[in-house]
Write a structure and sequence with these properties.
Four Helix Bundle (Hemerythrin (Met), subunit A), 91% helix
Length: 174
């Protein structure tokens, strides 16, 4: 009888231990999948933010390259107008070129404003906002310089913006 009672107790204990182990495994599996999903979403948001920063670097770099040639043409036409060597249509075309440059810089400033707002408002990107803060203000400086017909200085201000954006990419990579 003692022997039967002892076997019954051991069987009950082994059954309860194995049941407890099964429950622990299933709950840890759920928490791991939730953690993996959160980490994957965070990585996707960071990648998306880095892509947007890289796109702005590409667009600004191309624009600055083109601005160099446009600035040379604008200055040359302005000089010929001062010497009365340019036709009336040259002055109109030159003014249209200046307006186009100004509106492009304004577009960059608006895009950079939005980028800053998005980084500030997205929890996964907030750590990088500190490096990004001020790029829109650099573009606003370039916009003011372009409004004053200082296109060369405007291009230099945009180069500083590109440098800051590159710094953000480096920080996001780490």
């Amino acid at each position: 009888m003692k022997r039967t009672l002892l076997i019954l107790l051991i069987t009950l204990l082994l059954t309860s231990v194995s049941f407890a182990q099964t429950r622990n495994r299933s709950s840890s599996s759920k928490s791991k999948s939730t953690a993996n999903a959160a980490a994957q979403r965070s990585a996707e948001v960071r990648t998306g933010g880095a892509t947007r920063v890289a796109d702005q670097i590409k667009f600004l770099s191309k624009f600055i390259y083109l601005l160099g040639g446009a600035n040379s043409n604008i200055v040359a036409v302005d000089e010929s107008i001062k010497r009365n060597q340019a036709g009336p249509d040259a002055a109109q075309k030159n003014q249209a070129a200046k307006t186009q440059v100004r509106s492009s810089i304004q577009g960059f400033r608006e895009a950079l404003d939005k980028l800053e707002i998005d980084f500030r408002g997205t929890p996964e990107l907030q750590p990088y906002y500190i490096k990004l803060a001020g790029v829109a203000s650099g573009a606003a400086t370039a916009e003011q310089q372009a409004a004053a017909n200082q296109f060369d200085a405007s291009g230099r201000s945009l180069l500083n913006v590109v440098n800051r954006l590159a710094d953000v990419l480096v920080a996001m990579r780490q």
